[in-house]
Batch of 2 targets.
Target 1
Amino acid sequence: MGSIEGIMTGFQTAFSLEGIMFVMIGVLVGTFIGMLPGLGPISAIAVMIPITFGMDPSTGLIMMAGVYYGAVFGGSTSSILLNAPGISGTVATSFDGYPMAQQGKAGKALAIAAIASFTGGTVSVVLLMIMAPALASVAISFGPPAYFGLMLLGLTAIASLSEGSTTKALISAVVGFMAVTIGIDPQTGTQRFTFGNANLFEGIDFLVIALGLFAIAEVGKLIIARHDDSLSEKQNVGSLRITKEEFKDMRGPMSRQSFVGFFLGVLPGAGATIASFIGYIMEKKIAKKPEEFGKGSVKGLAAPETANNAATSGAFVPLLSLGIPGSGTTAVLLGAFLVLGVQPGPLLMVERPEIFWGIIASMYLGNIVLLVLNLPLIPYISKILNIPRPLLIALVIMFSMIGVYAISFSTFDLYMLVLFGVLGFLMRLFAFPAPPFILAFILGGMLEQSFRQSLSISNGNFMIFLESPISLTLIILSVLSFIFPLLKLRKKKA
């Protein structure tokens, strides 16, 4: 199937009645969950995975993509109204969004965020459509050694996924590696970390770990902060009108950060958080009046909102074309692909064009839905922040337990859910980042598989990893990607 025919198939899938309905559901659910402080796109996708069971993979993944970019935008609402970012990617949004809200311009701030998000999302989808096939055509020639190099390069993003100590991020990744080895070795039949328990012979399901580390751990955090009344105060959204001068101020940041955000999103480990911060800093440095930033600047709000939404689409390039998640959120999204029986990678565009192009085509529709949804309805949608905390906690626990039990109908998995929930809560308490854990859990299995396949092909000769130019280049990049941040950190301390 040619590219043009594949694109038409994708648009046909996305713009079918079923596709439109699930895009709207995904965007709505993602926006709702993203608005809740602490429940970002990772938790939103993890909670929604059980709902996709039995669905057609293309419509299920279109909905999950809608949840992703809906949650990214939803996070900006709580950043602007409450100064409580729903996700790390909208932290920079609060720098100028919250001051605008305090000045009685909350409606205007939300309108600026909606338009900037729409611009960044739409431009990046066009770039995604142009670049993804090129990357896929290169990646289709990858063999097991090259895949091993790719997985290795993906794992070097672990340091980037840490928000604090790199050592803690590496410890978190090691525990993730240990978790993925639990079960019977498919090649030798040897039991690994099962302790003779038959329930562990098939390993631990990804959903148990994702829901435990993110959703249940968030519940623990919400219970601890149950007496924080500041998060439940009612907000006045006000007018949404943007003047001609303000729109003129938005044009520059939106046009620049659409490209910057997309290319940063493509890089493994960069993602929406780094894109939004770089976008904010870049616009502040080139602004004629940088002193206005941090005090309710239109440019200061438009820049990070454009960049984080553009990065969201950019993150789909390595995920769809190479099967490599570039961030913690896309790592969970990769799990959703696997749960639905879809293996993203070079062959996805050839074997399942309705899924590959359907997801991309649905983003055009999703961005329009986001704009239509957020401009007139955000004043009403924001009332979800007034849901009583006990009811919110009960709903998250209920969805998580139903989702895990529906996989295997095993009470043992529910115990494991609680165990990983406690582990996730303790990791947050002691500042151990969870994304490196989930990234290592997902990539660890693929890394081991490609490593074993390569050695089987070469009869145990390790030189196979250095003979292929692609694998050699990727391994060198992996080593450099791992060493340079450590050298930079040492130089900074010196």
Target 2
Amino acid sequence: MVGRQARRPAAYYLAAIPFVVALLFPFYWMVVTSLKQNAELYDLKAIPFWFRSSPTLEHYMFLFERTAFATWMVNTAVVAVLSTAIAVVISILAAYALARLRFRGGETLGGMIFAVYLVPTTLLFIPLSQIIRILNLGDTRWSLVVSYPTFLVPFATWLLMSYFRTIPKELEESALIDGCSYLGALVRIILPTAIPGVLTATLFAFTLSWNEFIYAVTFVSSTAQKTLGPGVVTELIRGDVYYWGELMAGAVLGSVPIAVIYAFLLDYYISGLTAGAIK
């Protein structure tokens, strides 16, 4: 009996190994490629999975010394933080109203919000470009802060609706009996209880904003205003010349903030997703 219990965790780990290897291999490939010397990168006889020559940091130095990589990182962080904050605030208010308040057309409105999330972003170029032109935000990072909530709010609202519905109504009703308004009940009762759901929506929105590419490459063209993805791709691919070492170094550095955030908040993320799923 004891031996069977001891073998069960080992079986779980063995079953997980293929998935772990498949998920980590792209990151491993990026790291190895970013540390190889150029002569080894273009040598067809070199070992693709390991180093034949000593590793080098020249590709990372190239990024910071000969490109605007640091500016792209700052722009990406500013755009991701601001657009996430705007989207989460709007989503909390919308989700609370749709999940708790009873009014005509509420269910239909909830379905329409999720349907908006399914609209391809490429279909929104023309109306968004007109709005950005009217606001005089063309070719600035602020155009992305305005445009990103259009695809962040629908899914975050739907996710928070599911989570808010898992919270017992008695908690909110007690607050209303004690004199709280609906807004007061939301701030003092619902939000502290829904922290895993709010963090999940925040992580989701931040990840999408950090990795977004299509709007960023369409609405911004100045090097000083670019975000990380378009900056690395457009500045390090010149015609048919690919700076593979620098491209991989940029990909590694761009992945680090997301990996660190998920490493610390993964439990909240899973809790927020599963709470809405099992309702």
